[in-house]
């Protein structure tokens, strides 16, 4: 039974001092009753304990203590003091463990159901503790296991909060990454992040996994420009860094997070695996909604003593990913209201390379020693569907390819083949509409495709275009030919016969058609096998699959399945961005709406960048750009009112009547029995 601090502790302490404990029918020790009766008598408050039951006696004790500061610990023996002292330490540790933060003095008094003036008479110079800080320190030292999940006051200080708020207002970039308590940082990765911060007006935001701050690597606590984030942060109405505590061993930490927040406010949460996913929403065209995890900065320490946990530890170590998210203010047209440009943000992944002791962002590679231009092995475009592409995005892609100067440009669903679509062959109205627009001419599609490839070749004298086998590109035309539908297609009959003959000779009909209709540099076009790889031996990326064919010929392929089939890979097909560590689905190059996708959507315009170390970065097009190279025009960018906002953590009630779903039944049952 939870009673008043002094009623139980003092009773037990005096009994220990006397060497014997005698109790009457009320269950309270005789010595305790005698002592309390003497105290009340001294104060002129007679108490007849003989006729009171346990509950009324406890209430009377409480009443006495609320009215009289009668405790004088120096009158008791060292043994009695130690018992009482340990009891307070135990109660404080238990309270902190329950609420997850360092409890305040008034919280402790409330939890113990003791008036503050009574408790304060024990926590002051010359008494049990010199002050409250000594009580907190002794509790941590005596009960360290109780404080593993307790957040220290240092992470909630006004000084730290003010520094973070200033950084959020003034910096143009942030590196968001998770760490695990009790694990050291990857020093090479950390030093590379610090170098990036120095060169790119950035600061590092650290999200402790499960929000455990006890035992963080000291490097994280003492380095300028590094912030331990224990609150959620609303950077804008469209982006929140969320402090939801996720377990480190979750293999899919995004599970269930698609319902977080209002639609259109993307979420970033801390987890040791790096994931990106876009959610279907009705407003996707205006403001896509993504959920993202960060990757890790600390070493993969997951193994424990219990055999049952070894399997999950091994799997988690395999998933553990040294990576981070770059959150960057855009430098494009922006959201303009009343003449002011409001901040919007890019989010992109970065991956640590052990071989290079650093990471790439855009076309630069960063290590502890400095930065350099790196070799871009390939840029992989989202599904192109020539004729359906977004003109603004296409122009930007040309500029980006020129700047990055990749060795290859990989394409997904390069040709749309809408002129021979089997999906529309029985829809007379759809084909009639296409006829009016001149969209039933296959030769026109080939000609537009050849023009597009020639434009890519014009950007660089060395770039090679890699054509992936795709469902629109290849399957549709092979099906059209194999079913001999060209026989009843008056517009495309002649070309169909020619392509069928080429196919019989063993030629690829897509390659034949592009060459026929104006491809200028056919030797710089490669039709890729599905097992095509890019990157150094041991860390190469599987870059030949479009993503439309799964194991055993299945047509629905999730990123999880792609990861199981290919390991590290890049693909397209779904028209959205999805990332699991080094497995990336790169999005689309089309307009976000192309006629048939009228339902809530998650289509986003994106591309993949594969560097010389075989690392993949996905860039999403937003605010008329995919990356803001150089210093962002931060002075011309302002935040909307009340942003950025460090969200106050919801207080956890520390009173005796607070329960959670795990403890409520047992505690209420026991409390009922005591009554």
What does this structure look like?
The protein is α/β, with parallel strands linked by helices. It has 19 helices and 28 strands. The chain has 3 domains: 5-150, no CATH class; 155-369 and 629-646, no CATH class; 388-528 and 574-611, no CATH class. The protein is 33% helix and 18% strand. A 9-stranded mixed sheet has the order 22-24-23-7-8-6-5-4-28, sandwiched between helices. Strands 3-2-1-9-12-13-14-15 form an 8-stranded mixed sheet, with helices on both faces. Strands 19-18-17-16-25-26 form a 6-stranded mixed sheet, covered by helices on one side. Strand 4 and strand 5 form a beta hairpin. Helix 4 crosses helix 7.
- Rg result: 34 Å
Uncertain residue segments = 1-55, 64-71, 654-675
Described by the principal axes of the CA atoms, the overall outline is elongated
Strand coverage percent: 15-25%
Mean pLDDT: 82
DSSP helix count?
19
In terms of structural class, how would the helical and strand content be classed?
Answer: alpha/beta
- Span from first to last CA? 9 Å
What is the share of helical residues?
25-40%
Strand order across the biggest sheet? 22-24-23-7-8-6-5-4-28
Overall tally of structural domains = 3
Major sheet size, sense and barrel closure = 9 strands, mixed
E-strand count: 28
